[in-house]
Every structure is written in C-alpha cells, then in structure tokens.
Amino acid sequence: MTAVHREAESGSRNGLPSEERTDHYPTRLDHAIEPIPRHEPVVWGGAADGPLSQPHLDGFSEYGYLVAPETVSDDWLPLLRHELDRIAADLDADDPRVIREPGGTIRSIFEPHLLSDLVAQVVRLDTVLPVAQQLLGGDVYIHQARINLMPGFTGTGFYWHSDFETWHAEDGMPEIRAVSCSIALTENYPYNGSLMVIPGSHQTFYPCVGATPEDNHGTSLVAQNIGVPDQTTLTKAVDEHDIHQFTGPPGTALWFDANLLHGSGSNITPLPRSNVFLVFNSVDNALTDPFAAKRPRPEYLAARDAQAVT
Where are the annotated segments for Disordered (predicted)? Predict the structure, then answer.
C-alpha cells in the first residue's frame, strides 16, 4: 500500500494535528507512480440496513455501480423539468454556481437542493436517502449537488476521471466513502452523451501527474485536464474491466462509487439529456484540508458542514 505523510500550514483534521495526517491516495504528482489498491470497503452496510438486497449490494461492490429504475416516479418528472428551467432563469448570469459551455449554454448548476424545495425533497425520497445510508453505513450529508444539462447539438462531454481523485486532491475528502446518485430527467440513449463507466475500476486508485493550478475549478468544470489518468492507464483499465454504458428512461437513477472511472461523449443529436446529480458523503468522512491544492474549492462545490441529512 502506497501512503505518504503530508504536512499542512495550519489547522487540524478530524482531531489529529495536521502533521499526523496520512494520505493513502497521493496524486497530482510530478512523476507517475503505480496504481494503488483501494484502502476501504465499497459497501459499508448490510441487507438489513436499507432497501437494497444482498445481491444488489454484492453487485455494487463488484462493479462499482447500480442502476435503480423508477427512483423518481413519472408524476415528479414534469415538475422537476420545470424546476430546472425556473432555477436557470432565476439565477444571475454571473452567479458562480452556473457553469456554462464555451458557447454560452448552461452546462451545470450547483446547489440545486438549496435553491429548490422540490430538489431538496428528492434528496430525502425513500428511494434515495436510505440507499445512500445503506451503501455508506450510516448518516450521510450532501457533499455536492448539481443539475447537469446536455442540450442537443451543443452539449459537450466529460473526460474519463474518478470523482474521488478531485474530491481528495482539491476538497480534502480523506477516504473513499462517498457515493453519487445521478437521476435521469430525460431519456438516456446510447447516442446522446449518456454516461459510460469502467466497471471494477473503483477498486483501484489511479494517481495523476501534474500539480493543481490556482483556482483550477474555474476551468476544470468545463473541461477537465488535471486529475485525469493518462491514455496508457485508461487503456489498461478498459482492457481489464471493459466499458458499460448507462441507458434508460427518465426517473432511473445510476448509483456509482466515488472512485469509479467514468466519462461521457458529447451530444451531437437533437435529443437533450439532463439529470439531477447528488453526491452523498459519510459524516465520518468529513472534509479536511486539500491533499493536493493550496486552498479548498468553494462551498457550493464541496460542502464543509457535515450535518447529516434527515
């Protein structure tokens, strides 16, 4: 197991002096190092702890993802689509929570659960919150939430990456104990930029080369160039694990582990794709100082108040 001890300028982390923090997942390095086996379990709860059966938990542990049909029922979908339009219209053009494509169309809107009572209700649905609590083994909080929009013709993709790599390097998430829930609000076809995952890649952390630029989030949310594996590493991962693609009707949720390699192509079809994206983190995995950045990202990208969702 590769681990390094890092010192910070000040502060403490989870009650430990800064200089005592051990980093099990060094990244943003000046040279390449070997991939690192995962340090933590994938599933923290059991079949008795929530709605997922043991086969579902076993599948999530093995593949790093789970498709959950009808997470949001049909009667919610028109309301949520309308709410997306309302949120986009109400926010100022220069609101930092609004991320735009190079051509000006909206790519993502962060903190929708704080901007919309309806989205906040989705977080607490019986088909959502108990699943997160079961997978992570107890109380959870929202580390990050956003609406992703991929309009027809102009929506650009997301390059291959592990979310945990960024959350660890730039936000200070100590361990891999977070899970994402992407709820489709439109049909996900194989050809309109739907998400692709490398099943099983969540069991390995792939350190990345290249120091974190100042205020990296200003550009990485549009096109991520730092914190992504090199092509040789990705080729080996795909050779070993293959690629799966998430498709399905509106209301379907894709749950996936924080360390699962995933990405999407651009949408050159007339068919838009949108989703509500919720990231749950264990309250026992609260953020510390960044492991590979000078300062934390803004609160709307990485909540530092680990108050449990109830």
Answer: 1-31
